[in-house]
Amino acid sequence: MNFKLSKTRKPHKLSYKGIIIEPQIRDFFAGRIWTRYNTPFPQSKVDTYILRNYFTTKKGITIRTKVLIFQRTHFTCNRCQNKIQQEFVQYTCAKCEKECVYCRHCLNMGRVTSCTDLISWIGAKPLTHKKHLLDWNGTFTEAQKEAATQLVSSIKQKRNHLNHAVCGAGKTEILFPAVHYALNRGLRVCIATPRTDVVLELFPRFQKVFPKTNIHALYGKAPKQTGFAQLVISTTHQLFRFENAFDVIIVDEADAFPYTYDQALQKAVHKVKKQDAPVALVTATPSPQILAKQKKEKWGYSFIPKRYHGHPLPIPRYESLWSYDKAIQKGRIPRKLREWTNEKLSNQEPFLIFFPTIQLMEQAIPLFQQLDERILSVHAEDTDRKEKVMKLRNEQILGLLTTTILERGITIKNVQVAVVGAESKIFTSSALIQISGRVGRNAAFPKGDIVFFHHGITAEMDEARNEIFRLNKEGFGKNETP
Amino acid sequence: MKRHEVSKCLLCNNPIDESVTWITLLSNQFPRTICSHCEDKFEPYPAEPIDKTVISLYKYNEQMKDYLHRYKFMHDVLLAKVFRHQIHQHLAKKEATIVPIPMHPEKLKERTFAHVDELLKQANIIYEHYLIKITTETQGGKTREQRINARQIFALKENQNPAGKEFILVDDIYTTGTTINQAKKILLDAKAKSVTAFTLIRR
Ligand SMILES: [Zn+2]
Ligand SMILES: [Zn+2]
Ligand SMILES: [Zn+2]
C-alpha cells in the first residue's frame, strides 16, 4: 500500500469493503434467525450484507448419519431445534434434483429445508436505550412487593427464578420493576408465553406503563412492527425466529395447558437466551418437576398465596350430574345445570360454562340458546374468539360456553363458572385450579360461584380443591380458612 | 416422502384413532392421514355436474382453501397424501392415459415440487406428460376476461403423439375452465380420440 491519503480523494474509494449499515436492517435482524430468501428486504440487499460478512449462514436442517447396525439419518431443524424424526419429510426436490428434507414443526412460519440457508446477524449491535420510563402508580400488597423485590434481585444476580402466584395475585404488576431494571441496564428482555391470548392481554398493559419503550408483540398473524424492540412479548412458538438474543427471559403462564414447561419449550428458551441470561418462570400452578428443579438448581423463589384484593380463593363445590352427555345428546339440559344457568340469567351475572369436548359443546349450544339467545360458544379455532370474550366483558351477552381454551388469561368482572363433566381427563388438577381462578378476581366482586358438575369425583378434582384449600391456608392462616 | 406412516392427523395434529377393521385390511385401502373431524369439513362436489366431461371431487370451501394454501403455497409436500384414497378410487381403473397439467420449469424450481404430479404419485396412479407449459404467468391473478382471452399457455411435448388416444387431464383446481380447455385443445388438435378432465377441486 503506497498511496497517500489526500483530502481531495473521496474516502469511500478506500473503504470499499465497508458499507453503511442501514439501521432498519440491523434492527430487524439483530437476535433473529431467518430464512435467507424470505426476508422483508430486497434480496439483492440481503445478499450484499451476507457477502460482506454481516451475517453468518447455516443450512436449514442438519443431517447426521448414524451408523448403528444399519445406516440411519438423523435430522435437526436449525430454526426450531426440532429433533422429532416423524416431523421431517424427505422428498425429491425439483430445485436441487435430489432428495431434500423439510421440517413440519415450524412450517407455518415459512418452510425450512435442507437446501435453504438460515441467516443470523453478526454486524454491529442496535443501540439500546437506558432511559425507560415506568409509568405506573398502582400500589403493591406486602406479598406483591416482596415478590417483585425478589425477582429484581434474581435478575441482578443472573439467577433463574420461579414466581409462584395464585390466580388473581396481580402477577403482571410484579414484573414491572424487574423489567424496568433490566431495560435501564440496556438489556434486551423477552416475555414469552405459550398463548396468544396472554400476549394480547399483556401487550397493551406494558405499552401503557412503559410509554418510552419500543415493544413488539409477536404471535401468528401479528402486524408488522418496526425498529429494534428492547422488550419483546412473544408466544413461545414465535421464539423459533430468535437466537442468542435476550439478556432476560420471563416465561409467563409457564404451565399453561396444553403446554407444560417441557423439553421443547426449555430448548426454545435456551436457544433464544444469551448464555448467562437468567430465566424467570411465572405460574399459578407449578408442576412438581419445576418445583424440584427450582430447589435443586437453587433458583430464586417467590410465592404469593393471596389475591391482590386480600380475599381468599373461591372454593369449588361439587354437584353430581349423572349421564349429562346422554341428556345433552337427547336434546335436554340436565336439570341442575339448567337451574344453575337460569339463576345466573335472572341475577344478570355473567357466566362461563366449560365443556370437555367441542362436540358436546356444539350439541349443547342450541339448547342453551333456547334459555336465552344471548349465550354464545367459543373454542380454539374460533376466529371470533376475541370478539365473543369482549361481548361477555361488555355485558352484551350473558354467558359463554367454552372448551378449556379460556381457562387462563381472561378476567371478567363478577363471572360465575361451571365445569360440565369435571371428571373428564382433560380437566387436570392444574386446569381446574386455573378455571376456578377465573372467579372473584375483581375487588368489588371477590366472591362467586365455581361448581364442578360431574359424573363421578376424580382424584384430579380433589387435588385441585385441596390445593386451593392449602393456598388459602398459606395466605390466611388456619382460622380464616372458609 | 418415505419415513414413517402417519399417526397424527396431517391437518390438525390430533391422533388418528383408526381401528383397523377386516374391511380396511381386506380392501387394501390407504391408511388414513387425517382425522374424521378434519375430513368432515371437506365438502364433496355434487356428483352430477352439468358438464360431464369434467369430474371434480370437492368444493372450494374454507377447509379446502386452507388445505390448498398449506400444500401449494406453504409447500407442505406431505399433504399430497391427504386425498390419495379418493383420487385412487376415481382414476385407478381408467383405461385412458392420465395427463397432469404441467408447470413451467421455472415455477417448478420455485415450488420445488409439481403439485399435481405429487397428488397422482401418492395415489399410485401412473401418468404421462404430454404437454409443456410455455408461459410463466399464473391464472390466479387475472380477471375472468383476461383468462378467457389468454394467449396459448401450453404446447405439445416433444416426441409425444396423442393421435387416436384417450386422455384424462388432471389438475388441482377448476376455476373458469381456461386451463383445461386450452390443454384439451392442444391434444384434440393433435388428433386425440377423446379428452376428459378430473380435478380435485371445483370452484
Ligand atoms: Zn423446524
Ligand atoms: Zn432442495
Ligand atoms: Zn384433524
Automatic annotation (TrEMBL), chain B:
Domain Phosphoribosyltransferase residues, every copy: 124-203
Pfam families: Pribosyltran (PF00156)
SUPFAM superfamilies named in the record: PRTase-like
Gene3D superfamilies: 3.40.50.2020
Similarity section: Belongs to the ComF/GntX family.
PANTHER family to which the protein is assigned, alphabetical: DNA UTILIZATION PROTEIN YHGH (PTHR47505:SF1)
The protein's name in its UniProt record: Competence protein ComFC
Organism name: Ureibacillus sinduriensis BLB-1 = JCM 15800
